[in-house]
Amino acid sequence: ESRPLTRERVVLWLGVLKQAEGPGPGPFPLTGRDVLKRGVPPGARVGVLLGVVEDWWADGGCTASRDACLYELEKRIAM
């Protein structure tokens, strides 16, 4: 026998689903300051480089470490 879907049951199940998802990825580990510290002058290229590396990070499941992101950034700067 099924029970009616009450607001309380919906809230309960949403909580269960959220818990099952886990904490999710943290924030992207680089900032514009990281790009500037590598000799890129202020300007549009800073944002472009951050965007490209953030896309790379997201495509990899948001699991790359800060060091891995910095390495990828340095590769992109050299291109």
Structural account:
This protein is mainly α and 79 residues long. The chain is rod-shaped, with a radius of gyration of 20 Å. It is built from four helices and no strands.
Q: In terms of quaternary structure, what is this? A: single chain
The arrangement of helices and strands along the chain is HHHH
Low-confidence stretches: none
SS summary, helix count: 4
* Amino- and carboxy-terminal Cα gap: 64 Å
- Classify the beta-strand content into a percent band: under 5%
* Rg calculated over all Cα atoms: 20 Å
Broad structural category:
mainly alpha
Using the alpha-carbon principal axes, give the shape. Answer: rod-shaped
Q: Level of helix content?
A: 55-70%
Major beta-sheet overview: none
Number of strands: 0
What number is the mean pLDDT?
Answer: 89
How do the strands and helices of this protein lay out in sequence?
Blueprint: H1 7-21, H2 32-36, H3 44-59, H4 66-78
Helix pairs in contact: 3-4
Summarize the structure.
By secondary structure, the chain is an all-alpha fold. The protein has helices spanning 7-21, 32-36, 44-59, 66-78. The mean pLDDT is 89.
Any descriptors?
79 residues; mainly alpha; 4 helices; rod-shaped
